Amino acid sequence: MGDSLPSESQLCQEFSVSRGPIRQALAALRDEGLIGGGKGKRPVVLDAVPSQPFESFLSFTRRAEITGHVPGQQLQEIALRRPEPAIAAALQLEPGALAVQLLRLRLLDGRPAMLERMTYREQIGRPLLDADLDAGSIYAYLTERGVDLNAARHTFDAVAADPTDAGLLEVGEGAPLLRERRVTTDSAGTPLECSEDRYRPDVASVTVTNTRSRRADVTRSGPAWAGEFTPSAAAEVARS
């Protein structure tokens, strides 16, 4: 961050292209807020935020791999039970319906980074009861089995660490955590998963970029690792 890019002529020489494609690429980077400068000034790197595909925003494992870190996971518990009313409502479950719920600690380079509380509709989550959930990404496991995880709504806020958070994330009870709440739906809009992830604030942050010219084009990249990579989300300017 803050480094100057090579001049247009240097970039043309390095990539063996004319100035047209170079200027288009620089303009795209400016639109994304990744570089500054222009009007005779050499471009300067403002942020080192690589864009992420949809699957990487759902998968802690994939996000860690993209940013050059080693992901890990330790399952704490998994059970088939009746979820609390708020989660049952988010999943549009019938009264008394069962769901698969799990608690899993996520590691980054061997350090506690995030605690995930996940709830799946019974028919979606049942295979997880017999799976090795310490082996890797649940998202990848489900998609490989044909589960239609098509869209997700993410809500970010801060929350105080409860005793479970404090013990597993190795923070003080009451310490602030970055919380991501997520509801994932299939192509028909049926909710399949309702999750709450709690991140240590020293390993995760969120950046939101408002773009006036693109109202409907919303792209997101999720919580990532402080000092290495800051996630961003292009969002509408006007929100209720």
UniProtKB/TrEMBL annotation:
Q: Where is the HTH gntR-type domain?
A: 1-48
Query: Which region ranges are annotated with the description Disordered?
Result: 213-240
The entry's keywords: DNA-binding, Transcription, Transcription regulation
Membrane spanning stretches: none
- InterPro entries reported for this sequence: Bact_HTH_transcr_reg (IPR050679), Chorismate_lyase_/UTRA_dom_sf (IPR028978), Tscrpt_reg_HTH_GntR (IPR000524), UTRA (IPR011663), WH-like_DNA-bd_sf (IPR036388), WH_DNA-bd_sf (IPR036390)
Enumerate the GO terms in the molecular function aspect.
DNA binding; DNA-binding transcription factor activity
Q: Which Gene3D superfamilies match?
A: Chorismate lyase-like (3.40.1410.10), Winged helix-like DNA-binding domain superfamily/Winged helix DNA-binding domain (1.10.10.10)
> What PROSITE patterns does UniProt report for this protein, alphabetically?
HTH_GNTR (PS50949)
What's the domain of life for this entry?
Bacteria
Which GO biological process entries does UniProt record here? negative regulation of DNA-templated transcription
Q: Name one Pfam family in it.
A: UTRA
The UniProt record lists the keyword DNA-binding:
yes
Recorded protein name is GntR family transcriptional regulator
